[in-house]
């Protein structure tokens, strides 16, 4: 089974936001050495935790530091932008890293609606036009003339378009256009994944480049030498999820500080529910859970997202899983 990576450039308490961007570049090179198949980058805006706002720029920097791993957006929030401009950007990226570029697109704003409107004053209407944007993007991405316009530079390789989503809508859209589909499993702790993938497969219309469905899911996972160590480091995300529910967002906090403070009686049931579903533990434990999940959904590739306050903990988690799955 192939393993890939989704990185979100997470800001860390005690560090600066710009350091998170540089850490993403180092992690990409690390994951290429480990044998991961893809390295994807998310797009979010006006969030103090997830500070990766421009995946296409990060992709160019990663392309200059790597030679093999596929590099992609997960994703470009297409309603913010012109489909033509996105096609041009990704054709430039394809020229920099031929045969290695994934163009993942989503409809969600990746922000609150106030920010979305500042990015695109026609944000509400643009979201409704998402299917037409994908259609336009397909023509320009392929280097074809569309509305009398060609997206340059053209070349022998094409970025691979993916539709991203966490609901039935994206699954049906990807099926209609004959495109690969990635379900954001970690958004919902897997809720709705079976129905979305079933719809995607049953409604799929074969395309020239993708004659059969190509689904994957993105999961959150963390591995360490012991289960206790892994669960300790996962406290950072546990705390963030509780705070997010109350509208309090900020840099990822250190697990030692969280353990010292603990959780309130009101928070504990939420944390326990999160922990009961978490893909957290030793490499063998996480590996068994990932294999079982992939088998139950009929997948041959999973995308792994990992948060940790210590960058070395995150690197070690990816290294342990690479060893567990013999990626190298």
What does this protein look like?
This protein is of the alpha/beta class. The protein has one domain (2-226, 282-324): Luciferase-like domain (TIM Barrel, Alpha-Beta Barrel), CATH 3.20.20. The protein is 48% helix and 16% strand. It has helices spanning 17-34, 55-65, 83-96, 113-119, 123-128, 130-141, 168-177, 185-188, 193-203, 227-233, 235-245, 255-261, 268-277, 283-297, 311-324; strands at residues 2-7, 38-41, 70-77, 101-106, 160-165, 181-183, 215-224, 279-282, 301-305. An eight-stranded parallel beta barrel has the order 1-2-3-4-5-6-7-9, surrounded by nine helices. Helix 3 (83-96) links the parallel strand 3 and strand 4. Helix 1 packs across helix 2, helix 3 packs parallel to helix 6 (130-141) and helix 14 packs across helix 15 (311-324). The protein is globular and about 65 Å long. It starts with a strand and ends with a helix. The mean pLDDT is 96.
